[in-house]
Amino acid sequence: MKPSPFDYVAPDTVAEAIALISGDVREAKVLAGGQSLVPMLSMRLARPELLVDITRIPGLGEHRVGPGGELRIGAAVRQATAAADPELRTGWPLLAAAIDHIGHPQIRHRGTVCGSLAHHDPAAELPAAATALDARFVLAGPAGTRTVPAAEFFVATFETALADDELLTEVVFPAQSPGRGWAFEELTRRHGDFATVGVCVVLDRTADIASAVRIVFCGAGATPVRFPPAETVLTGARLDAGTLADAAAAVREHLNPPGDVHASADYRREAAAHLLTRAVTTAWERTR
Hints:
This protein has helices at about 15-20, 35-40, 80-85, 85-90, 95-100, 105-110, 115-120, 125-130, 150-155, 230-235, 240-255, 265-285; strands at about 5-10, 30, 50-55, 65, 70-75, 135-140, 145-150, 155, 160, 165-175, 180-185, 195-205, 210-220, 225. It is α+β, with helices and mostly antiparallel strands. Strands 4-5-10-6-7 form a five-stranded antiparallel β-sheet. A four-stranded antiparallel β-sheet has the order 11-12-13-14. It has a three-stranded parallel β-sheet with strand order 1-3-2, with helices on one face. The longest helix is centred in the last third of the chain and has 21 residues, at about 265-285. The chain is globular, with a radius of gyration of 19 Å.
């Protein structure tokens, strides 16, 4: 397959990139890693007249820990580059685990963190991890810069709060509390496939009690699905077999995943219940 004809430009600044994508003369698409966009071009599912390559813009290929202890990842940072950083793996291990589950090494060495987030396939790992870690998205457009929390950024399948004339310049992950437990689990048909269903768990522990719990599923809806029913069961409780069974029961009763040719809704729901039990147990053990 071959893409439709398009023009290509690699601007030197964010301002130039915004001017190119906000023009009303030609449809434009932003190119960073291209691991989602290029196949769509080849199948002619996307037919932009202009590709705007942002990988040469200074600063967008950098990631760093800010003065407040937050992790800031620029729009052109490759997934493999981010995951290989010892500081990221130590301070944000859930994010590193989510990246490790993405596709294959070849994809992770070309794909960008922000590109996966902006593309927003709800079965992908990074949108769920960003929601679990309460990430913030920095969007630059003709009217200036705004910051959108993860809870508001993901709108629907392949749809985000990012406007057509805006560029996602970086994603910001808040500093994580020392001793916080975490786990990422997913079910795939084959290694490297998108998740049939997956779950992120982040929890804090006080003595023998789970003092705070965040649970987010991927592959369970049109956006990452934060799941208060199980969070309520687990928060303030001792994580014994009965509590874990109650959390799994909440998944079976309240989670409403889609069904498709890959798995029925009932299958996804049951798999999600088992994954949650495993993930919560692992996260609890990691608080020790």
